[in-house]
Write a structure and sequence with these properties.
The chain is α+β, with helices and mostly antiparallel strands. The chain contains two helices and eleven strands. The protein has two domains: about 1-25 and about 155-195; about 35-150, Immunoglobulin-like (Sandwich). The chain has helices spanning about 1-25, 160-190; strands at about 35-45, 45-50, 55, 60-70, 80, 90-95, 105-110, 115-120, 120-125, 135, 145-150. Strands 2-1-4-7-8-9 form a six-stranded mixed β-sheet, with no helix packed on it. A hairpin with a 2-residue loop joins strand 1 and strand 2. Bound molecules: copper (II) ion. Copper (II) ion binds near residues 139 and 145.
């Protein structure tokens, strides 16, 4: 009986444990893609704005290469991302560019919407009230010169994938429950039988 229980326990462990190990190994191999874009600080209808106030990422993690250009004839602008405290020194900052100043290119990795890797360190960016990561212009943040970085297609996984995954777990649980019932049935049948109650039943009594 001990060996029988051992075999069942081992089978269950292998069946449940093996699929858990496989995706962990597979997920690490893909390289991080890069998104390159140019953002211009400008004045539109006497309002200071970013040319692209919403950066939608196709996926994360993602390497983001942003070239910031001040296209304003008179105003100074910056492209800035604060950490979660919202106070200087700002971890990602083009500095305030005067009109005609050279472009500044900032390259960082969005690990998640709450984690950015930049210059060999990581920080938690200040969130945007509208969702995602806030970026802003230092002189004109109060005037509404803000933008945000968010994830495109935040819709839940496709129905097909969800059903497949659910079926997978239902299958595994079904196998486990079946095995459990085999064990329970074994004891029920064994206890209801008048045979093999004690060792005397096994003693060979000789030929008739
Ligand atoms: Cu500005």
């Amino acid at each position: 009986m001990k060996r029988f229980a051992l075999i069942i326990a081992t089978t269950l462990l292998v069946a449940v444990g093996t699929p858990l190990l496989v995706p962990v190994v597979a997920a690490q191999t893909t390289p991080i893609p890069t998104l390159t874009l140019t953002i211009i600080g400008e004045t539109n209808n006497s309002k200071q704005v970013f040319s692209k106030p919403l950066i939608l990422l196709p996926e994360i993690p993602l390497d983001l290469v942003i070239t910031f250009h001040n296209g304003d004839p008179t105003m100074a602008h910056s492209f800035t991302i604060a950490d979660v405290n919202g106070t200087p020194p700002y971890p990602i900052n083009s500095q305030i560019l005067s009109p005609g100043a050279p472009n500044v290119t900032l390259s960082f990795t969005v690990l998640s919407l709450t984690r950015i890797a930049y210059n060999g360190t990581q920080f938690t960016p200040q969130p945007s009230p509208a969702g995602g990561i806030l970026f802003f212009c230092i002189p004109h943040q109060a005037a509404g010169m803000v933008g945000r970085i968010d994830l495109a297609g935040l819709a839940p996984p496709t129905a097909e994938k969800g059903i497949l995954l659910r079926a997978y777990w239902i299958g595994l649980i079904g196998i486990a429950v079946t095995l459990l019932w085999v064990v329970i049935s074994y004891y029920i049948i064994k206890s209801s039988s008048r045979h093999f109650k004690d060792h005397a039943d096994h003693v060979r009594r000789g030929l008739p």
